Task: structure prediction
Amino acid sequence: MGFVSLVGAGPGDPKLLTLRGKEVLEQADVVIYDYLVHPSLLRLAPQAKHIYVGKKGGDPDSTRQDSIDQLLVRLACEGKRVVRLKGGDPFVFGRGGEEAMALAKNKIRFEVVPGISAGIAAPAYAGIPVTHRGYASKVTFLTAHEDPRKKREHVDWKAIAGLSGTLVIFMGIKTLPNIIKRLLHYGKDRRTPVSVIRWGTTAQQRVVTGTLANIVNKVKQVALKPPAITVIGQVNRLRPLLNWFEKKPLFGKTVLVTRSRKQASQLSDRLESLGANVVEVPTIDISPINNFRILDEAIHQMATPHANPLPSRGEGRVRGIYDWIVFTSENGVEIFFNRLRDLRKDARVLKNVRIAAIGPGTQAKLQSFFVEPDLLPNVFTTEGLVKAFKTCGISGKKILLLRTTIAPKLLHDSLKKLGAFVTEIPVYKTKKPKGLQ
Result:
């Protein structure tokens, strides 16, 4: 028998996934995921098969719940480690209870990994605490969509209208007019504040505020679409003061990141932390060269002071070890130190060599290997690096450039004009990603 983890993916922001959720994704054979799951979470399970079973209100192509239940049972019976990845929390209007019952009836082992419910998180990102000692001492969660097989609805709207505190309604955009009508019919104050939050906790978050008297018209005016959470109650009055998320400097902006996929993540994370909606479209693909023989020989020469360095293009051999190594990207740094490791050597081969880095990104990558560059230009370009070298007296010095296979000749030729003996070794390839025209 296999094993099934019913995992709450959280309200939308992928960083709100729990540590246990991340752990089981990394161990999964199959991930069965919903419409509201952030796509980046699937990258935590690169080795797993990904199966989409999303539901969208009114979409005829939505997967039937009984089909999902049968799929979970079948995969577990095949011995698979299955992650059922669901938006929010599996047991808060997520039909996780139904899936757990199907597993239990078939004697399949399972676990439930709770997630942060959108009913709490979306209001929090909108600056609305669902409880507050001065405004609401209780909160009620409701779904606007009950089981259609029920002969009559089970929500007692008269009782709900008489409750104090906060009312949070899930999946209520299409039924919002009917909900508001019932609350007003049973005596809810027309002046009660209301907020409708779409795509809460994400960079696409949008909040419409009003009262029971006008919220339906306001939602219609902006054509707000699902998914959304509706918050009814006096806690909405705190939003102007506590609205922290939408005040981030890049909130509402979309930023296109064209760096290679491996390098994009750090930049994307920083942009997202400032509130941006980040779209990654890599325009280059970076990979190591196929044969490291020449680089390995250069490393051996550094480790053996009396060896002859490799000739630069069009030059004869130069005796002695290198005086400088120039790194013009993080990629060159990573590949160089990976080769040191593979050759069972370490940074001691650099003890007689000075290091130049083209900019702070390359410097940071060197520092991650406990190496501090000797030269860092004030302007982080090839021209800036050449200008910095002019102050170093490199005439007659032996310089090793570790670069891409398509590197421009400007740096190589400029250092030669300053009197240096330059050896350039390609250590990685730069090309268009597959599928990019």
Notes: Residues 218 and 341 are 62 Å apart (CA to CA). Residues 312-320 have pLDDT under 50 and may be disordered. The radius of gyration is 30 Å. The longest helix spans residues 65-77.
